[in-house]
Amino acid sequence: MNRIARLVTPVAAGMLLLLALPGLLDAQSVYQAKPGDQIDIAFYTASGAEVREITGTRWLEPSGEIYLPYIGLANVAGLDSKGIRQVLLERFAAFYDDPVIEVVVKIRVNVTGSVRSPGHFYLDPAATLLDALSVAGGAAGEVDVGTVGGAADRSRVQLFRNGQLEVLDFRPERSSPDTFYRLVESGDWLYVPPQARSRWRDNIQFIGSVLTVIAAGVFITNELKN
Predict the structure, then answer these.
(1) What's the CA gap between 172 and 154, in Å, rounded?
(2) Which residue of 121, 148, 188, 196 sits 20 to 30 Å from the alpha carbon of 136, by its own alpha carbon?
(3) 23 with 180: CB under 8 angstroms?
(4) Global pTM value
(5) Are strands 164-168 and 119-123 parallel, antiparallel or unpaired?
């Protein structure tokens, strides 16, 4: 029975991916940049020489603008990567003839709680919530050592989006395509709570360590008296 379960889970995950794939591809091509997003720019002259002072990573300001050498501020909020590229082509036309410009927009996502590498990450607009958990090292298992927050409760992953809280079940046997392959949005915050038994285990370990220290102190005191 266990062997069958191990085989079914990867097959089910593959089927979920096939169902979600068209939506992922569309999101990659039409995502509109928002403040806080990361914008990677590669800039080359018509002869293929890289212009290093322009090439690099920028972050979209709350005003919806990015700053670039020669042209100053450029308002690109609400544009997809192709739209941003077109704005840059027009603005740099006075300085370069037929430059080659590549633009990649990435979304900022925060992942905290019982994951191996909590923090904020910049992901492709086609990335899913599952991808976000993966880049943070994945939800921790009961046997993991040194994981922040202890073992994860995958059944109660919390998604904070646009001021709203939603609780999602990421257990493979319970999750649906809508959850597993739901696209990330700019500013998303995922929190993976620890399992209740992990918290009890931590409390017991803490109490045990305190009792050990007290016992050692009593032993030393008695030895000094003798």
Answers:
(1) 9
(2) 196
(3) no
(4) 0.69
(5) unpaired
Tell me the mean pLDDT in the region 114-143: 84
* Pairing, β 38-44 against β 100-113: antiparallel
Q: Please report the beta strands in the chain, taking only residues with DSSP state E, as ranges in sequence order.
A: 38-44, 56-59, 65-68, 72-75, 100-113, 119-123, 157-161, 164-168, 189-192
- Phi/psi zone of residue 163: left (φ > 0), alpha (ψ -120 to 50 degrees), beta? left
Structure tokens that stand for 107 in this block: 């979304």
- In a 3-state reduction of DSSP, which class is residue 42? strand
CA distance 145 to 8: 28
Read off the pLDDT of residues 206-218 as tens digits, 9 standing for 90 and up.
465 456 556 655 5
**HSE value, Cβ hemisphere, 13 Å, CA-based, for 61:** 8
Task: Please calculate the CA angle 144-145-151 and round it to the nearest 5 degrees.
Answer: 45
When comparing pLDDT for 21 and 106, which is higher? Answer: 106
| Distance of alpha carbon 187 from alpha carbon 185, whole angstroms | 6
Query: Within 10 Å of residue 100's Cβ, how many Cβ atoms?
Result: 17
Spatial distance between the Cα atoms of 197 and 188, rounded to a whole number of angstroms: 28
DSSP 155: G
Q: Is 53 left (phi over 0), alpha (psi -120 to 50) or beta?
A: alpha
Cα–Cα distance measured from residue 100 to residue 44, given in angstroms and rounded to the nearest whole number: 5
3-state DSSP percent of the chain in helix, strand and coil, to 5: 40, 25, 35
